[in-house]
Every structure is written in C-alpha cells, then in structure tokens.
Amino acid sequence: MSIITGGLSELKVADEEVQNLINQVRDELESKVGKRFTIYEAVSFKTQVVSGANYLIKIKIEVDIYIHVRLFCPLSQADAAPKLVKYQLNKSKDDEIVFF
C-alpha cells in the first residue's frame, strides 16, 4: 500500500499507539470542551502525511457519544507531544471521519 502525501489513509481500528496520543491531550481537550469525559477510548482513525502527520481520531466519550479530534505530530521531533489542532463534538458511532 502506498501513501499519498496530503491524502487521508483508509480507516483503521485504533490501537495502543493512538490511545497514547489522545491520552496526551486529554486534559487540554476536556478543558476546551468544558467537561470531564466518563469514557475516553480511541475507536478508529485516519492519518494524513504532511510535514509530519495529522491524526483524525474518533473517540468515545460517553455511551453513544463520540468526538472527532485532529492531532498533529511533527516528524522532526520524535519525542514531541502531539498538538491538539481541532475537535468536533456531537458525533455518532456511524459518523465518517473526514478532514476538518
């Protein structure tokens, strides 16, 4: 499988690496949204290769309530924390992850 720079990958099931990424931005995300999440579980994701990598991730935050987040991970700083770029509230289990 080849990856096209700038294009989104196919949908993938979230793994431990993706869960670790969202764990690093949980406090910031909860602060911006204005609430503590009862559940915080990465479900699925897509990636986009740019001058680093964008991760578009579906996160389950309550029973039947999801949020989409976009994180940026720079390539030049291997140990750099992911940056929370944007988020979308009120998503469902079936909402497609699209670039935002």
From TrEMBL:
One of its GO terms (molecular function) is cysteine-type endopeptidase inhibitor activity. The keyword Transcription regulation does not apply. GO terms for cellular component: cytosol. SUPFAM superfamilies: Cystatin/monellin (SSF54403). It is found in: Cytoplasm. Its main location: cytoplasm. Pfam families: Cystatin (PF00031). It comes from the Eukaryota. Residues 3-100 form the Cystatin domain. InterPro entries: Cystatin_dom (IPR000010), Cystatin_sf (IPR046350), Prot_inh_cystat_CS (IPR018073), Prot_inh_stefin (IPR001713). Keywords: Cytoplasm, Protease inhibitor, Thiol protease inhibitor. Belongs to the cystatin family. PANTHER family: CYSTATIN 14A, TANDEM DUPLICATE 1-RELATED, CYSTATIN FAMILY MEMBER. This is Cystatin-A-like. It comes from Biomphalaria glabrata (Bloodfluke planorb). The lineage of its organism: Eukaryota, Metazoa, Spiralia, Lophotrochozoa, Mollusca.
